[in-house]
Amino acid sequence: MNTRHVSSPANTSSVASIVAGRPLPPEHTAGARVSYNPARLDEAVAEVELVGADGFAAACAAAKAGQQAWADTPAPVRGRTIAAAGRLVEANAERLAALVTREIGKPYAEALGEVREIVDTCDFFLGEGRRLYGQTVPSEMPDKQLLTFREPVGVVAVVTAGNFPVAVPAWYIVPALLCGNAVVWKPAEYAAAGAAALHELLSRAGLPEGVLNIVHADGEQTFAGLEKALAAGTVDKIGFTGSSEVGVRIGELAGRHLQSPCLELGGKNPLVVTPDADLDLAVEGALFAGFGSAGQRCTSLGTLIVHESVAEDFLVRFTAAVDAAAIGEPTGPVLYGPLLDRRFAERFEEYLTWIRPHHTVHGRARPGRITAAHPRAGFVGDPDTGLYYHPVVVSGVRPDDRLFLEETFGPLVGVTTYREFDEAVELANAPGYGLSAAVYTNDARTAFTFRRRVRAGMISVNNSTSGAEAHLPFGGNGRSGNGSRQSGVWVLDQFTRWQSMNWDYSGRLQKAQMDTAET
Ligand code: UN1
To answer: Subunit structure of this entry (predicted)?
Structure first.
């Protein structure tokens, strides 16, 4: 660890890029930034030394140099290393979760759940180390055997957001390592301390030098670094979780090098409440989906689509639940705490300004009606110094509203109504994302029709849009991603390439398509 910033208070750590087990040399330094506690903006959590594009590329080169030895390690042995990493994370779960809470304001219970998800991921991939199956395939010719193998792709560059600062990176890092790849991880700068702590724990599991590296850099230097590394052939796969706008840029960059990245982007996730739904259950699900993590999950609820016959009743119950929710100091039992970082707070404030009455969209005047706003007095945190925001419910949201179309990434839920089921499906698909979608219904036909017709990677029936489990395919389509999937066995297709082998033991040259055995 770099210890240059000795003037920092005792509980402020110094965070540097660690490549092949050592801090990157000073010539790569390109500025610094501080990560703050969003509940107390005068409290620095970490001073983060940033590197430039050359530093990023140097990390990729080091990863390339270390990768082959790791790929040569038998997969079951790699699995045991992953398991050891999981045990280290488990043994340090409270410490890591507390750091996550302090650095990004995630309620402690959620932060602990996030750490638990890393352990679950390691548990899952321990077993995969003993499988990582290939296939034996029949040949069309006699005395010939066809086989398939999974081979690591090489170096995986992992670029992650800070809303799930440890679990989502682990969704990439753990399977990528299990598959025999080396990793260069670039976490969000505002979540660098938690990332550094996770990196340190995973590194202690016994990975060979250069196999797991962490680089702190700003967005533009990361792009430039990726470009250099792609040109040098030292990055073979990019895994990116973040906004759809940045995802498009990553996709373009990777495409120029004929690579297909793993893109997990934003969402405008609908939750449909049908007339036969259990309304109290739907209220509970919508509250957690919309306001859990302050609405800062890519799977957070965007728009409630409620059948007009139950809309009024639902809205009364929902706003009452929102008003009663505990919001504040994230170390306590709250629904949500502060927003992640100033950047997100500023963006959220833009939406708040926009929804004030008489703002116009597409040239037409349309009032935005706030039907629920938490009284400031209800906060147990310090709203003057922390990035705390009222929960906002906006009813009467129309399909051409910004609020209907854009991911707001904050404690804001739009509500609209529908008459026919087809209309609900149309509204659910309209924003063009396709990550997660939920329906509350007690009718199996409605549930399965919804699943089939809503273009989302993940469908929930009578449950929240958020809260995906660690062993199901995670990912989306449209503006939510390029169809890549994380988690479970499905992610193996991201971090391995299929190689086939044909072995002819006939003692003669058999020609495919020409010597095919007659039937
Ligand atoms: C994200 O917000 O980037 O579904 C991922 C969930 C989480 C993952 C969210 N387990 O809520």
So the answer is: Homotetramer.
Secondary structure (3-state) at 370: strand
Amino acid at 505: Y
Which one from 47, 114, 264, 329 is the annotated catalytic residue?
264
Cα(296) to centroid(ligand 1), Å: 9
**Measured distance between the N- and C-terminal CA atoms of the chain, rounded to whole angstroms:** 68
Ligand 1 pocket, residue 111 CB under 6 Å: no
3-state SS, residue 217: coil
Q: Where are the beta strands (DSSP E) in 260-375?
A: 262-264, 269-273, 301-307, 360-361, 364-365, 369-373
Ligand 1 pocket check for 241: Cβ under 6 Å: yes
Weakest mean pLDDT among 252-266, 358-372, 485-499: 358-372
Ligand 1 lined by 418 (C-beta under 6 Å):
no
Q: Are 103 and 12 in contact (CB under 8 A)?
A: no
Is 417's C-beta closer than 6 angstroms to any atom of ligand 1? no
Please compute, for residue 147, the number of CA atoms within 13 A of its CA located in the half-sphere on the CB side: 11
- What CA dihedral angle connects 160, 163, 167 and 171, to 10 degrees? -40
473 DSSP 8-state letter: -
pTM of the model: 0.93
Q: In what order do the strands lie in the sheet with 436-440?
A: 369-373, 392-395, 412-418, 301-307, 269-273, 436-440, 458-461
Q: State the pLDDT confidence band at 5, using cuts at 50, 70 and 90.
A: very low
Distance 300 CA to ligand 1 centre (A): 8
CA-CA distances (angstroms) from residue 123 to 212, 340, 473?
19, 29, 16
Whether the CB-CB separation of 472 and 240 falls below 8 Å is answered with no
Of the CA atoms within 13 Å of residue 19, those in its CB half-sphere come to 22
Q: What residues have CB less than 8 Å from 434, skipping those under 6 apart? A: 267, 455, 456, 457, 476, 477, 478, 479, 480, 481
Q: How far apart are the C-alpha atoms of 99 and 198, rounded to whole Å? A: 10
